[in-house]
């Protein structure tokens, strides 16, 4: 049986326990981060769509930081959006605030019909820094 090397952000939000998942797992020099949404500390969605995207990135960055990474270490991104035909450009503009400069990670955007009350979700794979913490 494999022991999962779980990474939690300093301020866990209620969704981890409610839905029984880990925020991120370290494995083979990589960090696999679960989909992050724009949830408040109690697990409720941020109602403003742009702020929900910002909060999803802030939640993601807290996990990356807890693992000793930053968004610059991200190599693969998957985003899920409700109604991307209407909201993709706006969400992508907000995401650019966090994206950084080229070279960019790979990215896949998926349109979905349901995200448990959320409008945007981002999951990533990042390269862990070399050294004892990796």
From TrEMBL:
Pfam family, one: Ribonuc_L-PSP
Listed GO CC annotations: cytosol
Matches recorded under CDD domains: YjgH_like (cd02198)
MF term (GO), any: deaminase activity
InterPro entries per UniProt: RutC-like_sf, YjgF/YER057c/UK114, YjgH-like
Record protein name field: RidA family protein
Source organism per UniProt: Roseateles chitinivorans
């Amino acid at each position: 049986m494999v022991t999962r090397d779980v990474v939690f952000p300093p301020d866990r939000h209620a969704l981890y326990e409610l839905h029984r998942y880990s925020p991120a797992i370290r494995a083979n020099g990589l960090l696999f981060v679960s989909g992050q949404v724009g949830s408040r500390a109690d697990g409720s969605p941020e109602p403003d769509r742009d702020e929900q995207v910002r909060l999803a990135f802030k939640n993601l960055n807290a996990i990356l930081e807890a693992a000793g990474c930053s968004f610059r270490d991200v190599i693969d991104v998957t985003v899920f959006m409700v109604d991307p035909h209407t909201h993709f450009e706006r969400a992508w503009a907000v995401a650019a605030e966090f994206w950084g400069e080229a070279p960019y990670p790979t990215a896949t955007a998926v349109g979905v019909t349901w995200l448990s009350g959320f409008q945007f979700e981002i999951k990533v794979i990042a390269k862990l820094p070399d050294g004892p913490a990796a």
